[in-house]
Amino acid sequence: MRFDIVTLFPDFFTSPLQTGVIGRAIARQIASVHCINPRDFTEDKHKRVDDEPYGGGVGMVIKPEPIFAAVESLPVLPRRETILLTPQGVPMNRELLGELGRNFDQLVLVCGCYEGIDERVTELVTREVSLGDFVLTGGEIPALALVNGVTRLLPGTIGKQASHEEDSFENGLLDYPHYTRPSVFRGRAVPEVLLSGNHAAIAQWRYEQQLARTRDRRPDLLDCGDATPGGDPRS
Predict the structure, then answer these.
(1) Could you tell me the pTM of the whole model?
(2) Is the bond preceding residue 91 a cis peptide, omega within 30 degrees?
(3) Which residue of 75, 126, 150, 234 shows the fewest CB atoms closer than 10 Å?
(4) At what angle do helices 20-27 and 140-151 cross, to 10 degrees?
(5) Residue-wise over 200-212: b if at least 16 C-beta within 10 A, else e?
(6) In the annotation, is 229 catalytic?
(7) Residue 69: which CATH number?
C-alpha cells in the first residue's frame, strides 16, 4: 500500500511512522508513506499557500493552486483513492479502513489547515473522511490515524490473524477485558474462569463481557436483535 500525504507539516509524521508495529511494516515494505508539501508548488518568494476568504470572515483559507499541483505531481497507481481529511467527511471506522485496505493500492491523503481549504479542491478527491465530530488544527492527526488503521489490517503487519478477529467492533461488540500476571494485584484478582483452563467457559465469559461492556459504553452498536458469539448483534 502506498500512502501519499499532502501536508504543510511533513515533519509531523517522521517519528510516529518510524516506531512500533507501523514502523516495522514500513521497513518491511508492506506499506510506504510519502509526504509532499504544497509550499514546494507555490510561485511567490514567500511560498504562501493561504489567502483571505472571499465574502469576509475570520481565518485564512488554503489556496487551490498548490494543492492541485501537489496532487497532480504524484504517480498514479491503477487502484487509487484521493481523500480529503475534513470534519465534514464520513466518520472513520473499522469498515472504512478495511475497505480502503482491500480495494486500493494507493491512498492520497490531503490535509486541510487553518480556517479551511478552497472548496474547489473537492474536485480532486474521491471521498471526504472525518476522525470525529470535532475540529482539529489540521488534517495531520486524522491522516496519521488513517495510515495506522489501514496498515495494521494489511497482511503481514500483525503476525496473528486472530489479533484482528478479536478486536473491538469486529463482531459488532467492544472487546472483552484482558488480564495477565500477577493473578492478584493490589487486592484485585483475575476472574477465576480465566484460570480454569476450560476454554468453552472462557469463551462464554468473554462474550458475556463483550455484551455487557457494549451495552454500558456503546449501546448504539446494539441497534436491535440478539448478538451471538462471533456474529453480528445487529443481525
Answers:
(1) 0.87
(2) no
(3) 75
(4) 70
(5) eebeebbbebbbe
(6) no
(7) 3.40.1280.10
- Residue 84 forms part of a structural domain: yes
Q: How far apart are CA 76 and CA 2, in angstroms?
A: 10
Domain that holds residue 188: 166-221
To the query of whether residue 152 is one of the catalytic residues in this protein, the response is yes
Rounded to an integer, the average pLDDT of 121-134 is 96
Choosing from 10, 65, 115, 175, which is the catalytic residue?
Answer: 115
Tens of pLDDT, residue by residue over 159-215, are 765 455 555 566 789 999 999 999 999 999 999 999 999 999 999 999 999 999 999
The answer to whether 220 is a known catalytic residue is no
The reply to whether 89 falls in a domain is: yes
Residues 26 and 130 in one domain: yes
Question: Which cell numbers hold the place of 7?
Answer: 501536508
Check 38, 118, 142, 152 and give the catalytic one. Answer: 152
Active site residue 52: no
Give the cell for residue 48.
504562501
Q: Does an H or E element contain 97, and which?
A: helix 94-103
Question: For residue 108, what is its C-alpha cell?
Answer: 492520497
Q: What whole-number distance in Å separates Cα of residue 150 and Cα of residue 92? A: 11
Single out the catalytic residue among 65, 87, 166, 170: 87
- Given the residues 65, 166, 167, 170, the one annotated as active site: 167
Quick one: 71 and 170 in the same domain?
Answer: no
Neighbours of 85 (CB within 10 A): 29
